[in-house]
């Protein structure tokens, strides 16, 4: 790290600080401004902000690990979520914006009624706003600590390699990460969603620009020898884009899937399980950004931009660096470190500073969104709903800023207690299996009630908890994703039984929801019959056609880019034809769509 590198990093921090101060007055007006940007965020800003949030410091490292273990096809661990992402674009984005709510947790009492709805709202506010949030921030903090330790192996602060606070030991690298979290907390509490989103745009451009430049430079390295050199030095199966059917998950990971695993993984996971940023039906910070747009059209285009950029623009620079790392560092014990080692060994002065700034930008983008989004749950759906209802907007904004600092502090403590959560994603997906179906059907079936969602939330968590405690649960001993079959089946059976054994949502709530949201499909027929003057903007069949075109667009773009990069011109051109056809259809269909 040279003086030029540190200067570039310093300039980035000055910019982030300026944005925070610039948007302070606007964010101070009320909680709608603080959490939703006053519903005035342009769709492109909301969409890029979503993508920037999912580009955390750990993401390129995780992709490097996936490629090292299972080749390019290992990325199907997250590529399959594109199916659910497009579902959000065409089936849910407009509906979210019509609700006029502040958080997706508030939706619970907008859609359901009774004491069960209140309990569900409070449980989700604490579970997602506090528990899941601090774990996510703690994980990305550990990833940032890894980056710092590799780039600065002799780092000490005040002459110490680590600090001890009672039972907690903090390395010098993690102490720097803690300081970064404090800094992010400050600009998140000052600027609200507008400042977070504007900073996200710069962070995303910086992070993607750095990764693309890094991919170009490492391919030019003589030891790598470009794409031809990669192909000559790595096994041919490393470059497969699709999983191989056959073999066992235990022996070959995701690259070789058994038929049941393929069905569970490709055909079930994306709609059945909740995962941050890929919630079935939309949710979390994705819903927050959609709710922050001026209208339902903006909400849909924000989600569309996010899905395309997330799956088509981001992956290939990371994958190319990951492949080069396999050539340059074939004997790495921790394959994730390969990405950072390429940074350290390949990038010249100035470019290294740019790339470190890009990693800092990615880290800060994720943390700032997690803080703003998580605090929106704790304030709007926790404190304001259950503790103090009738205070001034100034009071709630001030409390939001206090909670931002506290949440950042708790996240740092959690980071010190985490050793390794490399399998955490499978745990999260398993502990939410079956919930996704309720999150989808609550928009399109009037009979789903608060008890349905509460049951679907708690049953898979209970099953996984029992398994972790050593209590045998039939079917759960199977490896992921095969265990999804039993969890989804049990969860679905439980919530369907509870649905029919409990009373429906209050008719007044159902009528209000239908009149304002106007969901399509036969699932609302009993309620729709009471409102003959209300017609959904689109039919389920129309939305399904748009969804299919969107899926073709995303996967054609993803594979087409890969084929061209790998020198496979013919399949690349075929993918380009599919891109042109699906994009033209969507342009025509959305442009000629009747206004709502």
Q: How many β-strand runs?
A: 4
End-to-end span in angstroms?
55 Å
Quickly give the structural class. mainly alpha
DSSP strand (E) fraction? Answer: under 5%
Task: Note the quaternary state here.
Answer: single chain
> Count of DSSP helices?
28
List the uncertain runs: 248-254
The Rg value, from CA coordinates, equals 24 Å
What is the strand arrangement across the widest sheet? 1-2
- 3D shape: globular
Provide the helix percentage.
over 70%
Mean pLDDT, all residues? 84
The biggest beta sheet is recorded as:
2 strands, antiparallel
Would you mind describing this structure in some detail?
This protein is mostly helical and 596 residues long. Helix content is 71%, strand content 2%. Strands 1-2 form a two-stranded antiparallel sheet. Strands 3-4 form a two-stranded parallel ribbon. The protein is globular. The relative contact order is 0.16.
Task: Please summarize what this structure is.
The chain is mainly α and 596 residues long.
What characteristics describe this protein?
single chain, 596 residues, mainly alpha, two-stranded antiparallel sheet, two-stranded parallel ribbon, 2% strand, globular
Question: Topology of this structure?
Answer:
Blueprint (H helix, E strand, L loop, with lengths): L2 H20 L1 H4 L3 H6 L6 H12 L3 H13 L5 H4 L2 H18 L7 H5 L2 H38 L10 E4 L2 E4 H49 L5 H8 L10 E2 L3 H4 L3 E2 L1 H9 L1 H4 L11 H8 L4 H18 L1 H14 L8 H10 L4 H37 L5 H25 L6 H7 L4 H7 L8 H19 L15 H18 L5 H11 L7 H4 L11 H26 L3 H23 L5
Helix pairs in contact: 1-10, 1-19, 4-10, 4-15, 4-16, 4-19, 5-17, 5-18, 7-16, 7-27, 9-10, 9-18, 9-19, 9-20, 9-23, 10-17, 10-19, 10-20, 15-16, 16-27, 17-18, 19-20, 22-23, 23-24, 27-28
């Amino acid at each position: 790290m040279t003086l030029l590198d540190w200067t570039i990093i310093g300039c980035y921090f000055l910019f982030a600080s300026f944005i925070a101060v610039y948007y302070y007055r606007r964010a101070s007006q009320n909680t709608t401004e603080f959490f939703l940007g006053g519903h005035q965020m342009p769709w492109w800003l909301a969409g890029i902000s979503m993508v920037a949030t999912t580009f955390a410091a750990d993401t390129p490292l995780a992709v490097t690990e996936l490629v090292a273990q299972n080749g390019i096809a290992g990325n199907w661990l997250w590529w399959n979520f594109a199916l659910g992402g497009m579902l959000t674009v065409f089936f849910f984005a407009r509906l979210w914006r019509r609700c006029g709510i502040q958080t997706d947790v508030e939706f619970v009492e907008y859609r359901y009624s009774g004491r069960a709805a209140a309990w569900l709202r409070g449980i989700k506010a604490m579970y997602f706003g506090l528990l899941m949030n601090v774990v996510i921030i703690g994980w990305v903090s550990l990833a940032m600590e890894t980056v710092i330790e590799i780039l600065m192996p002799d780092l000490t602060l005040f002459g110490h390699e680590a600090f001890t606070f009672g039972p907690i030991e903090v390395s010098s690298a993690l102490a720097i990460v803690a300081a970064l979290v404090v800094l992010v907390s400050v600009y998140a509490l000052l600027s609200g969603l507008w400042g977070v989103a504007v900073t996200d745009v710069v962070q995303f451009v910086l992070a993607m620009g750095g990764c693309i430049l890094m991919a170009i430079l490492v391919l030019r390295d003589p030891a790598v020898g470009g794409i031809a050199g990669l192909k000559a030095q790595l096994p041919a199966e490393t470059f497969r884009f699709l999983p191989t059917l056959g073999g066992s998950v235990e022996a070959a990971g995701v690259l070789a899937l058994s038929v049941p695993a393929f069905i569970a993984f490709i055909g079930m996971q994306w709609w059945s399980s909740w995962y941050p940023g890929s919630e079935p039906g939309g949710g979390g910070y994705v819903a927050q950004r959609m709710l922050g747009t001026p209208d339902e059209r903006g909400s849909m285009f924000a989600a569309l931009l996010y899905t395309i950029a997330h799956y088509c623009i981001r992956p290939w620079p990371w994958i190319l660096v990951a492949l080069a790392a396999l050539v340059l560092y074939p004997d790495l014990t921790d394959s994730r470190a390969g990405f950072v080692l390429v940074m350290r060994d390949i990038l010249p002065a100035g470019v290294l500073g740019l790339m470190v700034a890009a990693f800092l930008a990615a880290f800060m983008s994720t943390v700032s969104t997690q803080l703003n989004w998580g605090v929106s749950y704790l304030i709007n759906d926790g404190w304001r709903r259950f503790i103090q209802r009738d205070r001034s907007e100034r009071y709630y904004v001030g409390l939001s800023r206090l909670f931002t600092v506290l949440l950042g502090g708790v996240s740092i403590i959690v980071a010190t207690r985490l050793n390794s959560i490399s399998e955490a994603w499978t745990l999260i997906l398993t502990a939410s299996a079956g919930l996704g179906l309720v999150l989808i059907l609550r928009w399109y079936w009037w009979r789903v009630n608060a008890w349905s969602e509460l049951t679907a939330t708690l049953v898979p968590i209970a099953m996984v908890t029992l398994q972790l405690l050593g209590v045998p649960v039939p079917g759960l001993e199977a490896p992921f994703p095969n265990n999804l079959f039993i969890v989804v089946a049990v969860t679905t059976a439980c919530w369907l039984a509870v649905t029919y054994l409990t009373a429906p949502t209050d008719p007044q709530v159902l009528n209000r929801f239908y009149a304002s949201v106007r969901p399509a499909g036969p699932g609302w027929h009993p309620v729709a019959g009471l409102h003959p003057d209300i017609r959904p903007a689109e039919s389920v069949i129309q939305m399904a056609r748009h969804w299919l075109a969107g899926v073709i667009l995303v996967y054609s773009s993803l594979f087409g880019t890969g084929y061209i990069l790998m020198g496979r011109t013919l399949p690349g051109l075929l993918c380009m034809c599919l891109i042109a056809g699906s994009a033209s259809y969507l342009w025509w269909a959305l442009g000629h769509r009747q206004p709502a």
